[in-house]
Amino acid sequence: MGGDHAPHCVVEGAELALRRYKNIRFIFFGDAQRIEPLLTQYPKVRPFAEVVHTDVCIAPHDKPSVALRRGGQSSMRLAIDCVQEGKADCMVSAGNTGALMAMAKLVFRTLPGISRPAIAALVPTVKGDCVMLDLGANVECDATALVQFAIMGDAFARAVLSLQSPKIGLLNVGSEEMKGLDEVKQAAQMLRNTDLGLNFHGFVEGNDIAEGTVDVVVTDGFTGNVALKTAEGIGRMVSRYVNNAFTSSFGSKLGYLLAKPAIARLRKSLDPRRRNGAMFVGLGGIAVKSHGSADGYSFYFALRVAVELAAGRINHKILEELKLSLTLPPAPVLEKEV
Fold it and tell me: Hey, is 114 helix, strand or coil?
């Protein structure tokens, strides 16, 4: 029931997902009087769907503490409980992000060996998509947390992007070893000196994200969120520039007709809906957050992320690597620059 276009976008997204995955099933939690008519509108979904009625839902403005106290029978909490009870493999919601994180953390708990969960999602590059985390769950991170993010990002990339050995980079203000915050430099040393089998590239800068220099970009939640929102804003700006350029005169409109196939490919590659779906990695269950403004097409991609993560057994991959990381040496003490 969460999001600007729910529950319509959820059911529409489910029908699109069924075209790609023939063996998935859905449990819709929410107001049955609003969901049932949509199953008539999208009849292909009905044989693969179950509706669990509840008239309680978390409002967009509800604080996490309020959601935890009053949302025990909300659609969001019931979906999380469903995963915890083993009745579903993953859950997707376009609802209140803070409430979803708080509830998922309360119910799923963090994986053994993980100190903090992180928000991970796909971002576009000139070489395809890459994984970036954290995107806002942890404003400040120490070196150990960044190393854990690298482990979780590696598992995410292998599950969703089907990469055998994802290249991992630490986002920094420069590629030189002496640059950056102490925590980032300590994390780099820890990643270089471990036997985790991670393909650690080293430091990357902001421009390396779009260049596709690495497959996984690791950073703290403050920096990651700013970088992601900046990239999304630039994408929208480029789209507007292109639209204005091809509508400014009769000649430009004629040129658009000739360039229409190329423009369509550009719009598709810049379409943020195709990269919808962020996971709270590090928790004991799979919870995927969709954009609150998602339409059906966008929600379909959030469902794709959830399905691929579940099929790729992401938490099993993280736990396998964490068994090795438990033998990590302590973070080195770095001398500060004078």
Answer: coil
Q: How far apart are CA 56 and CA 115, in angstroms?
A: 32
Give yes or no for a contact between 113 and 326, defined as CB atoms under 8 angstroms apart: yes
Q: What angle do CA 193, 195, 200 make, to 5 degrees?
A: 65
CA pair distance 184, 319, nearest whole angstrom:
23
pTM comes to 0.83
Model confidence pLDDT, tens digit, residues 164-195: 999 999 999 988 888 888 999 999 999 988 77
What are the residue ranges of helices labelled H in the chain? 8-20, 32-41, 64-70, 75-84, 97-108, 143-160, 182-192, 206-211, 221-245, 250-270, 296-311, 314-325
Could you give the 3-state DSSP secondary structure of residue 328?
Answer: coil
Token pair 């004629």 in the structure block, residue = 254
pLDDT digits (tens, 9 = 90+) for 9-28: 999 999 999 999 988 999 99
Pairing of the two strands 287-289 and 49-53: unpaired
Q: Which residues, at least 6 apart from 175, have a Cβ–Cβ distance to it below 8 Å?
A: 202, 203, 204, 205
Query: CB of 2 within 8 A of CB of 96?
Result: yes
Contacts 24+ apart (CB under 8 A), 101-105: 101/64, 101/137, 101/280, 102/64, 102/65, 102/67, 102/68, 103/67, 103/68, 103/71, 103/76, 103/77, 104/80, 104/280, 104/283, 104/285, 104/287, 105/280, 105/283
CA 78 – CA 191 distance, rounded (Å): 39
Stated as kind and residue range, the H or E segment containing 124 is: strand 118-125
User: Which residues share a beta bridge with 51?
Assistant: 28
